[in-house]
Amino acid sequence: MPETLPPPAAPFVATPAGAGGPAVSRMAGALVGSEILKIAAEIRAMRAAGAEVCNLTVGDFDPAQFRIPRALEDGIVDALRAGETNYPPSSGLDPLRAAVSGFWQRRLGLEYAPTSIVVTGGSRPGIYGAYRTLLDPGDRVVYPVPSWNNNHYVQLVGAEGVPLACGPESGFLPTADALAPLVRDPRVRLVALNSPLNPAGTLFTADQLGALCDVVLAENRRRGAGDRPLWLLYDQVYWTLTFGGARHVDPVSLAPAMRDYTIYVDGISKALAATGVRVGWVAGPERVAKVMSDVLGHVGAWAPRAEQAAVARFLADDAAMAGYQAELLGGVRARLDALHDGLAALGRAGHPVTAFAPAGAIYLSLRFELAGRRTGDGTRLESNEQIRRWLLDRAGLALVPFQAFGTTGEDGWFRASVGATSVAEIAHAVARVGGALGELA
């Protein structure tokens, strides 16, 4: 691993997809590719070349670390052999919609009829489907930053984003006081929330989310009968991954009147370490679910039939779900604890490092307050991108800066994702980070 930094890097900016010329649409030409995937590709190339890198970038699970449930794997194979290879209904297989309905009722106390549930090819099409179904060009969306991909979904549907900057004092989550004045604009049609939060690994308390629901309900009461409503998109795909005393909460359980204004997004990608199996779902008012099914049906955004059949059987097996999730939680928590505790020890030793205690998801929010510090070759660290490069090149620690999630400040905040690494790799990386920090002036 090199002892000195390369020349200072420019701030990280992904390249617009259509930068090569006018052959594509204006929307496509202006669209920015995934900042996270660009960094992840860099890390893969370094590892392929033999570099020792602790990869904490993409929010994924490495099957070498976390396998999907064996019963689910066998169920997919059995479904394929049984001939479950043709088109599924655009809204999803009836047994899976019923299984999701029952699973939510048993685990969350949420009662949604199968007809209010739309199965999607992972959770991303569900989010896109909500944007596409609820918004017209020029409508406005309020979303917190940092948050995952809302800026891109806004652009895809021709809406206008209203980013709400959130800081560490609120766990990077929006507050009711900050949200209320923004939604009084009648052009605001959607508030997009995520808990547990990607990228920070924090989650709403009942009081915090309840206050936000009050804001949405008050605004809908204020709007006239002929006005279009204010919707809440609630992405809870990480809800099964909460730790210690943290508990997941959701809008409709806290405020039943929110049922008329809430679209839920969920799936198995994180709950079952099954990001590549591509089974997610959306739930909301039946009239909206039907339209969303039609919208997504035109782009073939359904999950594969065999996977749907297998997931339906697995979700109905409470004992298998509980056993697998206990194992998954233990593995994720061990990695988050190892990273948090190791970096916290560096902080106690006087290094400018801060880490939030693990609460949910597979993420840890980390702060390296290194702006203004000088490396061994005299290079002055100025930006998050320079700090990211220095941590990668000098300590083999691969992180994603919060700018990839919509923030603008050069304040040293990063996301660490632990699904593709081991406790031993984390321990070695923390030791390297400690040594590297000791060399800064």
Task: Write a concise keyword list for the protein shown above.
13% strand, disordered N terminus, single chain, four-stranded antiparallel β-sheet, 441 residues
Mass-distribution shape: globular
Structural class category: alpha/beta
Strand coverage percent: 5-15%
Please state how the strands of the largest beta sheet are arranged side by side: 2-8-7-6-5-3-4
Low-pLDDT regions: 1-14
Extended strand count: 13
N→C terminal distance: 20 Å
Q: Helicity range of the residues?
A: 25-40%
Write the element-wise H/E pattern from the N-terminal end onward: HHEHHEHEHEHEHEHEEHHHEEHEEEH
Mean pLDDT, to the nearest integer, reads 94
Total of helices? 14
Radius of gyration: 22 Å
- Major sheet summary line: 7 strands, mixed
Folded structure, characterized:
- The chain is an alpha/beta fold.
- 40% of the residues lie in helices and 13% in strands.
- It is built from 14 helices and 13 strands.
- The strands form three sheets. The chain has a seven-stranded mixed beta sheet, sandwiched between helices.
- A hairpin with a 7-residue loop joins strand 9 (353-355) and strand 10.
- It is globular.
- It starts with 25 loop residues before the first helix and ends with a helix.
